Amino acid sequence: MKAAFYTLGCKVNQYEAQALARQFREAGFTIAEPPERAEVHVINSCTVTSVGDQKTRQLLRRIRRQNPEAVIALTGCYPQAFPQEAMALKEADIVLGARDRARLLGDVERVLAARRLGSACRVAEVCPHQRGEGFEPMRAEDFAGHTRAFVKIEDGCDQWCAYCIIPKARGPVRSRPLPELREELAGLTARGYREIVLVGINLSSYGKGEGRTLADAAELACAAPDVRRVRLGSLEPELLTESELSRLSRLEPFCPQFHLSLQSGCEATLRRMNRRYTPAEYKALVQRIRAVFPGAAITTDIMVGFPGETEEEFAQSLEFVRELGLARAHVFPYSVREGTRAADMPGQVPAPVKERRAREMAAVTDESRRSFWKAQLGSTQEVLFETLREDGAVVGYTRNYTPVLVPQGQELPGQILPVRLLSAGEDGCAGELAK
């Protein structure tokens, strides 16, 4: 019997889908790659934006049209945040939230057993998150098509930013015990993964209330047998301390790429967002990182058009971002999210204004990205090669996550080799293998 998995959203969702696929595989299922036909289809949903919810519903309906007899399960953040809305979607035979994934395999088998007996069976139950719930045990073993492995070490968020529904979808902060992390790392490195990316919903909160910190998890990952690289997922800037940076700097496999969520470079806007830092504090952190990690990549997310954002506030944010010299940024316009405080705030910015501001901000961050790449020309960097293109060129990434293309290298994917960077274009740097 075959099961197919569909993942929407973040790297944590990608990890969780792989962990679910592992459970099904161990239960005797063959994992199908969409659009291959399967008896079971599992949608691991995202609810960061209302557009994400819409994509989930569209995917659910398409799968039902194409597979009228299949068992379809909807799980993840969308049902958890909006349980009544999700449970009303009759195309799904099973509706479970992000908290109930451990039940999924059993519920699928229950529905399949009922069908074999000629009975109708539907499972739709979403349990709310609770204080004190533990970290959900799960383990992934295969990231098909990837040379790096994602490892989830944290779940939940207590920040309650004004625009964000994720605390409702993911619940309180929970952290993975270090012995469980050590066991999974050993399995991944035994299967040949040399780069590990530690991910979480609010990764900086790892170990909160438990006497552990993110540096403890990074040290454990860097000490795993045969690990060559360790990266961190997205970080909240106010939670990355000087002590943490000092510990990270002593880890040879640690990659100097820091994704520090900014959202806005205007202090007044950040206050309305309920963010916990000022632009000055963010800039000071960037300076400390660059002092400890020369050549580090600083990447971020930037929102424009948050309720109440005036032209003056946007100009402050734009100038602040221009001064930072970012390596990469995801720029996006604010979108109303039902269930958040920002949805009811006054001063909603018209769509055309948000779109224009997004274009202006993206132009600044694009120029910063090109400047970051050009600054590395002439240097020799270690590159983990990943993708072989049809034209024979191969693309990989440096330790600071600069994309690098080498013209010919059919045998290179999966290898880490020194490359001299010769030129920079719109998609990264080009280079040649160092002699």
Determine the N-to-C terminus distance. Answer: 51 Å
Strand content: 15-25%
Largest sheet: 6 strands, parallel
* Tally of helical segments: 13
* Shape designation: globular
Radius of gyration: 22 Å
Structural class: alpha/beta
Describe the strand arrangement of the main beta sheet, using strand numbers: 2-1-3-4-5-6
> How many beta strands in the DSSP annotation?
18
Q: What is the average of the pLDDT values?
A: 95
Helix content: 25-40%
Uncertain segments are none
Task: Please tell me about this protein's structure.
There is one protein chain. The protein has 435 residues and is an alpha/beta fold. Helices cover 34% and strands 21% of the residues. The chain contains 13 helices and 18 strands. The strands form four sheets. The chain has a six-stranded parallel β-sheet, sandwiched between helices. Strands 14-15-16-18-17 form a five-stranded mixed beta barrel. It starts with a strand and ends with a strand. Strand 14 and strand 15 form a beta hairpin. The longest helix has 24 residues, at 351-374. The protein has helices spanning 11-26, 50-66, 77-81, 83-87, 104-116, 166-170, 178-190, 214-222, 242-249, 267-273, 279-292, 311-324, 351-374, and strands spanning 2-7, 30-32, 40-45, 71-76, 94-95, 123-124, 148-155, 174-175, 195-200, 229-232, 257-259, 297-304, 328-333, 380-388, 394-397, 403-406, 416-424, 429-433.
